[in-house]
Amino acid sequence: MAITEHVDLSKFMAGLQKRNPGQPEFVQAVQEVAEDIFEFIKDKSVYHEYQILRRLAEPDRVISFRVCWEDDEGNIRVQRGWRVQNNNAIGPYKGGIRFHSAVDESTLKFLAFEQTFKNALTGLPMGGAKGGANFNPRGKSDHEVMRFCQSFMTELYRHVGADVDVPAGDIGVGAREIGYMFGQHKRITNSFTGVLTGKGVEYGGSLIRTEATGYGTGYFLADMLKTRGLQLDGHTVVISGSGNVAIHAAEKITQLGGLVVTLSDSGGFIHDPKGIDAGKLAWVKSQKTRKRGRISDYVREFPEAEFIAGRPPWCVPCDIAVPCATQNELTGDDARVLLGNGCLAVAEGSNMPCTLEAAHLFKAAEILYAPGKAANAGGVAVSGLEISQNVARMSWKQNEVEQLLVGIMSEIHDRCVEYGRRAGTNHIDYVRGANVAGFKKVADAMLAFGVV
Ligand code: NDP
Ligand code: 2IT
Questions:
Q1: Which of 130, 280, 373, 441 is catalytic?
Q2: Which residues, including other chains, have CB under 8 Å from residue 70's CB and lie 6 or more apart?
Q3: Ligand nearest to the CA of 248
Q4: Mind listing the pLDDT tens digit for each residue in 325-356?
């Protein structure tokens, strides 16, 4: 009997769902891509014949392992760690590591799948992967985090390497955690290599890597607005999250003239109608990174703002929304509220922040809507530049790296325009553009290798 799953979207999704029970985030991420790819390949039989999407939606491997560590009270704690290596057709596996209590296999499979397309869009030679553990760094002492990171790397080291798989940070993993993991890798392998990115600049990190994801999102947003003859100047921007991506997106958007009025965390959001300017952002940065504080503390420092507990910020009227916290943080109802308030652009700093319903609503409304795999690709792009600097044993200057970042974001925008322009109109479907451009590059490399 002929296999038909690869030519019929609903059969394809039914098969995927059956093979991945209890993994809704992974199924969602594949569905969002498959909707565009089935349309793109309907007259391109070679992609069907070689079952490219079917193969892309089956990770090369999922590695799972136990991570034991000892807390400050001497209790033995057991966590679960993973590395999902999705695809290395265009370069070594590459993608972040997430430490968060909600991390599971479904989340990491969706992130590794997304990463494959995102990394292809950067134009740099990087395959897609993601890793992490169900460990929550919040409330842990530095020594507890250090012991956890060391234990995590004691297993992970055998699966990664500068030419094999190069992890970086993500939620709950920043400069401190990368330092502990790099130190342990160096100790176990007795080698100093570019096995991780997001390193401190003292030991091989790149300038601008910390800022790159948020800055890149700001640049991408400005490029999108330009297609409609608009600028950030005079526009009100609502941002969620208050971590690495949110803070630097707010910084760049403010520099480009936007008025950022919200930030959030899992406790709620702050609304500062006068704008979270550079001075206030510097305060947030030091609270969140050095003191690991909560966003609710903001209203004690800046009493003109208010804190709204237990809700995301999408109810605040705005021209532009930039989700920068986590997956599925913006629902269909939120999308309706944003559209009702006249929101004209959404740029995803986080990975898959919009539910499928929200994404479909934005697409149907034909607003400027950039998916994370395009808008937040600046982080992994500068990770790619960090790899190049490590291989060349050089460090580039801040303005050199930032100029390269600007160029890469604008090329990603061009690719989205090329593959996303809706026939006979001026409308650009950035989701379709990003999906198709990312797919095409990886798919053509896979075709070159035959069936492997
Ligand atoms: P951080 O850990 O620095 O910050 C995460 C922020 O999101 C915190 O404010 C956190 O609040 C909030 N958050 C996390 N989970 C939830 C939740 N379930 N509900 C509400 N708020 C939540 O992570 P990053 O800024 O690095 O990452 C944010 C997003 O950007 C993620 O989707 C990540 O995958 C994506 N991304 C990151 C890149 C990077 O280079 N770091 C690159 C590209 C994408 P709280 O402290 O209360 O948990
Ligand atoms: O989601 C992402 O692109 C990241 N967390 C960054 C990955 C990287 O390898 O820099």
A1: 130
A2: 76, 77, 147
A3: 1
A4: 999 999 999 999 999 999 999 999 999 999 99
